[in-house]
Amino acid sequence: MFDRLDRYIARNVLMAMLVVQALLLGLDLVINYITDLEDVEGSYGALQVFLYALMRLPWRFYQYAPVSVLIGALVGLGAMASSNELTVMRAAGRSLTRILWGVMQPLVIVIVITMAVGEYAAPVTEQYAKSWRAELQQQGGVADRGGGWQREGDNFYRFGSIRTDNTLIDMTRYRYDGKRLVSATHAARAVRNEGHWQLQDVRTTRFKADRTLTEQHATQPWQTSLDPELLRLIITDPDSQSISDLWRYAHYLGDQGLAATDSWLYFWQKLLLPLTLASLLLVAASFVFGPLRTVAAGTRVFYGAIVGLSFKYIQDLLAPAATIFGFSPIWAILTPTLASFALGFVLLRRAG
To answer: What Å distances lie between residue 37 and 28, 70, 161, 174, CA to CA?
Structure first.
């Protein structure tokens, strides 16, 4: 089923994808490290910023997979086209379809690895990295800019992060009586013990008509129906949640009568990732066999970057459109994917 030529094509394309992925991750690591240095203060120093960037590499790997597939395929096939290897294969009777079969083989490996990273590795490392940073910044008196909000009755909560051992970091509760703010409580941590929450290092400010009162407690019980699993979904950004988590959280928001467009959007984006990668690989192959077969390697990479950015921008534009016009978020993902398939098939048909 797979002959030596198929394996040769697959190996060249796969190696190019890996090199592109490594270059993108390295560049992203440097840029994010430099950008995050402005957050250095107290216990969160330059070394901690670098470690935080390293912890987030699985998530970055997942995010860059489509671009790596597109540009990697352009580079790998482009190198074979520049050395006339593809021309020799065609002259020897190798059909375009059979060459494409060899090109598609490494995609299976890429899809399996990428989906595994997105479903199992990235959510865990993102949760750990953000809770680790939040604790360090809390020690230095720096407010964490991430987290999530949740309403429960007359209480509005803001949660900074949650550790893998279900310890909440940096929780603030605002209690209202109608439209009037009654009290604001901040806890450095909330620990789950035998099914009950215990707040630690608690500071409460009560707002009276003519004054404010402040109370401090080392520990304080917290009565709530929020469990660690739900809190993790509330706090974690949708783009770093697993497919199964997005499914559960989208249904939870729907049961609460809240909009779940973002959760469904990322759910379909991750579930349909194999189709997305296949469409981009087909576009890359069609470019090499079609309009870009005689251009320089740098030009191919440039056009690949343009196509990849256009693909992303179309998805980003369709995402808010799904909310405004009320169509299913799945079409925000499928539309550019189907357009890529159509473009690839048209160009290949002309080349064949």
So the answer is: 14, 32, 21, 32
Strand order in the sheet with 168-177: 148-152, 155-162, 168-177, 180-193, 196-207, 212-222
pLDDT, tens digit, 9 for 90 and up, residues 149-177: 888 888 999 998 888 888 998 899 999 98
Task: Please say whether the beta carbons of 151 and 256 come within 8 A.
Answer: no
Model pTM? 0.87
Boundaries of every domain in the chain: 4-138+272-351, 148-231
The values of phi and psi at residue 224, to 5°, are -155, 155
Q: What is the largest CA-CA distance in the chain?
A: 91
The 10 Å Cβ neighbour count of residue 98 is: 15
> Residue 44 CB: number of other CB atoms within 10 A?
22
State the Cα torsion 338-316-143-61 to the nearest 10°: 30
pLDDT 10s digits, 74-131: 889 888 888 888 888 888 888 888 888 888 889 999 999 999 999 999 999 999 998 8
Average pLDDT over residues 178-200: 91
C-alpha Rg value of the chain to the nearest Å: 25
CA terminus-to-terminus distance, the chain: 23
Higher pLDDT residue, 248 or 302? 248
